[in-house]
């Protein structure tokens, strides 16, 4: 299979990679670039564990091909904290015990940040629907929703 | 050191009971935590597994010659590469057969061959080149069908155990179990009101978001390493080593971070195959399951068929309870029907009770444990009948339950007499809870249920190393599946009398510690936590000895208080207290490193009870049920980290809600699973649910120094019935089959309205 060369930006860093035509962006991130924060829970776009942003838009990286990413700006969980400073969502997830096993956490954080970027004052219902594409089997979502609501309130105060 | 447990109810805790950040929090929110599929080894190959498309077929031959000729293919493994080394151990032999089919494929998805290749695409091509010659056999996937006399037999020689007289004809029934006491027939004669119902529940999957994954590396010298997501890496080591004929000590297994398990990762599936491929290829091999493989070829829980009959007198006293439970456990013996029969009536104080269970095989994947295995279905059946019986007696269901609830001294339905238990307090708190008095609207209903789980102790081994800077490393062998490292640190800090942030817990590999049982049975915070407390006490003894040495007084003249060594009294000498940090700093010159250890098999796991309240609303147009409000009240003994205790309550409740409303294994007539993905096997999502309110009760467990009871499993037991009872209250139809999916509920509503019309 012939490889395809792709130039892209990941978490602000110019990044080039080669991939095969049938590799998903998730495959490329995990297997070629060592960015294993995005997880493969289903490979069918149902669980949201592989969530990233592409040009600012929340996407399941298992549903797009690596070869399609030429010129795109990709955001992953690895780019969420700035230096040693955690994003407020990351802090609140820890404080609220909004994770148990933690496998879904990167996807939830990306999805929650995407929500707050567009809607800084979401209602509980809006949070619940914004996160409905992400599956968590441990928490029953209660503490995740609380963490996101609390982050939104804190970010509004800041 | 004897357990000083009398103090647990009066002790004032400094650290235990607080809610600090978990030690692995930053790793988990930054994507840095390494789960099963996140490891790489130099030169690793990709392993893929060929699976049977047939639910039941004889394997007449496997031809892998074409696959082996494909460039990039480094090894192919079939059952021929896994000779039987199980030495008469029937349970281990079942694991071997489940890992790789031998004479027969017993379910759709059963592994028949595996390949290791230099890339995923080559491995996929190679699978297509392996030719398997199948002779298709008749199949059965329903438990009641599997028990019929003319059913296709999975094991043509299997005679049911536990029957008197022993049956002469083979069947799919592995074994009969019976629990109970008293005279059930005589009890029913005293009954003035009897309710009798039959129920069915479909199989559900644990639904952990992380598929099984491992990275195996075995050399021709017989030494190997395995990185794997599992609930018990010591179990993985022993099982794989036995199946592959390796020495236990030469296989080092490291537990990755684990992305959920709920019981489903308490056995092996891909691990022996990855090791066999690696051994044959002499290269590291990584095997990662797809979600489809997880659904088809790991262990969902049993589907069930249950009859329950309960009788009461008019004053609301239950006089007899009887249940017959039939669970299919997939293609192998070992469905959790025994636990179902033991737990069915465990929440009641009954003079006459009997529960009979039948363990049945059929052409489905081998069931694995799922959170309180076997109990939720039995509880659904019994608590549905209890609710109906309460109404017929004319009592509020909660008062009926309180009147008949098990309490300290009750002879439980499964044998033991209860010590101090928390069922009545959860019921009393439930009655006082604002949820219980909140008004309901049209098409809305309220249901409740009580549930029970045994909890387990088991083997734990802990090492504790005091650093010269006064910080403490705790080395445990229990995979942390939901924050247990935080609990280990809390208990260690409490016992040593130092701050939480001076303790760090690490989950070590199998080469580092003695055997630790699987993280299951809600045992880790209880048993491994108790090992941490004991290891801390061992370290304290040594810290006191060092202080005695420094002061030049006898060791027994030193006591430990608030993180400091002190002379026991004025006779012992007049020295200012020495902190752990001060003693640790002098360790190099007072005898070297200071460490505590503890290894044991824990008894005394206290049982745990819960009461759940559920409000739901049914849309009569669509049959869709919305959960409006949900409250969990459960006895935790002592909540070490209350946030994670609440998390266990909430998570279990929501898995139970999914079981009650959405989740099911759907088989076609062809014996094939029709919904092997998260789109069609729908677990609850965020927008389906309300907040899950929790109330933690603390009735200390006398078997633990701090009174801790396991909390992980009880929370999935009552929701099936609580939801079903609320739906029944909302629409006036008793739902006896789970899940209560919209088509099923709609059909029941239509039947009800047709019956009403006919009556008019």
Please give a structural write-up:
The complex is a heterodimer of chains A (158) and B (760). Chain A is of the alpha+beta class. Chain A folds into two domains: 3-79, Roll (Ubiquitin-like (UB roll)), CATH 3.10.20.30; 88-157, [2Fe-2S]-binding domain (DNA polymerase, domain 1, Orthogonal Bundle), CATH 1.10.150. Chain A has five helices and five strands. In chain A, strand 1 (3-10) and strand 2 (13-20) form a beta hairpin. The termini of chain A are far apart. Chain B is α+β, with helices and mostly antiparallel strands and 760 residues long. Chain B has a domain at 457-587: Aldehyde oxidase/xanthine dehydrogenase, molybdopterin binding domain (Aldehyde Oxidoreductase, domain 4, 2-Layer Sandwich), CATH 3.30.365.10. In chain B, 29% of the residues lie in helices and 24% in strands. Chain B is built from 21 helices and 27 strands. In chain B, helix 7 (233-244) packs across helix 8, helix 10 runs parallel beside helix 11 (375-393) and helix 15 packs parallel to helix 16. The radius of gyration of chain B is 28 Å and the shape is globular. The termini of chain B are far apart. The interface between A and B is large, with 59 and 58 residues.
Defining traits:
heterodimer; A: about 160 residues; alpha+beta; Ubiquitin-like (UB roll); DNA polymerase, domain 1; 2 domains; five-stranded mixed sheet; 5 strands; B: about 750 residues; Aldehyde Oxidoreductase, domain 4; seven-stranded mixed sheet; six-stranded mixed sheet; 21 helices; about 30% helix; globular; 2Fe-2S (chain A)
């Amino acid at each position: 299979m012939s490889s395809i060369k792709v130039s892209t930006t990941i978490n602000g860093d110019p990044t080039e990679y080669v991939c095969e035509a049938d590799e998903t962006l998730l495959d490329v991130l995990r297997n070629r670039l060592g960015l294993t924060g995005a997880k493969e829970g289903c490979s069918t776009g149902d669980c949201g564990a592989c969530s990233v942003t592409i040009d600012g838009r929340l996407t399941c990286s298992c549903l797009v091909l690596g070869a399609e990413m030429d010129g795109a700006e990709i955001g992953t969980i690895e780019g969420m904290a700035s230096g040693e400073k955690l994003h407020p969502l990351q802090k609140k997830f820890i404080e609220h015990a909004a994770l148990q096993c933690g496998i879904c956490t990167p996807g939830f954080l990306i999805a929650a940040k995407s929500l707050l970027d567009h809607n800084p004052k979401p209602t509980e219902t809006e949070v619940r629907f914004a996160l409905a594409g992400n599956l968590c089997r441990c928490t029953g979502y209660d503490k995740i929703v609380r963490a996101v609501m609390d982050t939104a309130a804190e970010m509004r105060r800041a | 050191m004897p357990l000083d447990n009398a103090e647990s109810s009066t002790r004032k805790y400094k650290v235990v009971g607080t809610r600090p950040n978990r030690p692995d929090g930053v790793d988990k929110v930054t994507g840095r935590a390494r789960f099963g599929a996140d490891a790489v080894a130099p030169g690793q190959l990709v392993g893929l597994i060929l699976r049977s498309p047939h639910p039941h077929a004889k394997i007449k031959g496997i031809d892998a010659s074409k696959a082996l000729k494909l460039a990039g293919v480094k090894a192919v493994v079939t059952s021929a590469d896994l000779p039987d080394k199980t030495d008469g151990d029937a349970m281990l032999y079942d694991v071997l057969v489940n890992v790789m089919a031998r004479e027969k494929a017993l379910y759709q998805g059963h592994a028949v061959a595996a390949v290791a290749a230099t890339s995923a695409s080559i491995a996929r091509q190679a699978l297509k080149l392996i030719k398997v010659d199948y002779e298709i056999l008749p199949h059965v996937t329903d438990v009641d069908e599997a028990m019929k006399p003319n059913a296709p037999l999975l094991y043509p020689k299997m005679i049911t155990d536990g029957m008197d007289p022993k049956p002469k004809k083979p069947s799919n029934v592995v074994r009969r179990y019976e629990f109970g006491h008293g005279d059930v027939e005589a009890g029913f004669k005293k009954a003035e009101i009897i309710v009798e119902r039959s129920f069915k529940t479909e199989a559900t999957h644990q639904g952990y978001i992380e598929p099984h994954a491992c990275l195996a590396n075995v050399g021709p010298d017989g030494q190997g390493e395995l990185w794997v997501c599992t609930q018990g890496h010591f179990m993985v080591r022993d099982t794989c080593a036995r199946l592959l004929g390796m020495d236990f000590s030469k296989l080092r297994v490291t537990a990755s971070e684990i992305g959920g398990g709920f019981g489903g990762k308490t056995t092996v599936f891909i691990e022996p195959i990855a090791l066999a491929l690696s051994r044959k290829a002499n290269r590291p091999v990584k095997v990662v399951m797809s979600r489809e493989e997880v659904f088809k070829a790991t262990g969902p829980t049993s589907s069930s068929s249950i009859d329950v009959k309960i009788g009461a007198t008019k004053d609301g006293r239950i006089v007899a309870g009887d249940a017959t439970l039939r669970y299919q456990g997939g293609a192998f013996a070992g469905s959790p029907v025994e636990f179902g029969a033991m737990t069915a009536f465990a929440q009641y104080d009954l003079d006459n009770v009997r529960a009979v269970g039948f363990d049945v095989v059929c052409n489905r994947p081998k069931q694995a444990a799922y959170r309180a295995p076997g109990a939720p279905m039995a509880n659904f059946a019994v608590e549905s009948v209890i609710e109906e019986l309460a109404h017929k007696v004319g009592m509020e269901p909660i008062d009926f339950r309180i009147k008949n609830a098990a309490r300290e001294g009750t002879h439980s339905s499964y044998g033991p007499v209860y010590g101090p238990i928390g069922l009545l307090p959860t019921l009393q708190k439930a009655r006082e809870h604002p949820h219980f008095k909140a008004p309901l609207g049209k098409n809305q209903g309220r249901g409740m249920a009580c549930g029970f789980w045994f909890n387990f102790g088991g083997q734990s081994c802990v090492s504790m190393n005091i650093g010269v800077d006064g910080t403490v490393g705790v080395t445990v062998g229990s995979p942390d599946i939901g924050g247990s490292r935080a609990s280990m640190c809390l208990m260690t800090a409490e016992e040593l009398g130092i701050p939480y942030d001076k303790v760090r817990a690490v989950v070590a590999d199998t080469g580092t510690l003695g055997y630790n049982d699987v993280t299951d049975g809600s045992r880790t915070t209880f048993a491994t936590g108790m090992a941490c407390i004991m290891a801390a006490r061992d370290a304290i003894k040594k810290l006191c000895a060092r202080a005695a040495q420094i002061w030049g007084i006898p060791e027994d003249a030193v006591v430990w208080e608030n993180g400091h060594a002190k002379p026991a009294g004025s006779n012992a000498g007049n020295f200012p207290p020495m902190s752990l940090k001060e003693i640790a700093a002098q360790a190099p010159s007072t005898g070297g490193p200071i460490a505590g250890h503890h290894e044991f098999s824990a008894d005394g796991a206290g049982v745990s009870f819960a009461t759940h309240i559920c409000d739901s609303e049914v849309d009569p147009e669509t049959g869709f049920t919305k959960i409006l409000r949900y409250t969990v009240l459960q006895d935790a003994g002592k909540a070490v980290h209350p946030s994670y205790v609440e998390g266990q309550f909430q998570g279990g409740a929501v898995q139970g809600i999914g079981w009650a409303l959405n989740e099911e294994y759907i088989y076609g007539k062809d014996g094939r699973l029709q919904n092997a993905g998260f789109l069609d096997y729908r677990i609850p999502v965020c927008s389906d649910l309300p907040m899950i309110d929790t109330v933690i009760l603390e009735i200390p467990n006398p078997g633990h120094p701090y009174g801790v009871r396991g909390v992980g499993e009880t929370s999935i037991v009552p929701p099936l019935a609580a939801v079903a009872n609320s739906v029944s209250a909302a629409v006036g139809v008793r739902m006896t089959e789970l899940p209560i999916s919209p088509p099923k509920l709609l059909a029941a509503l239509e039947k009800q309205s047709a019956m009403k019309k006919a009556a008019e």
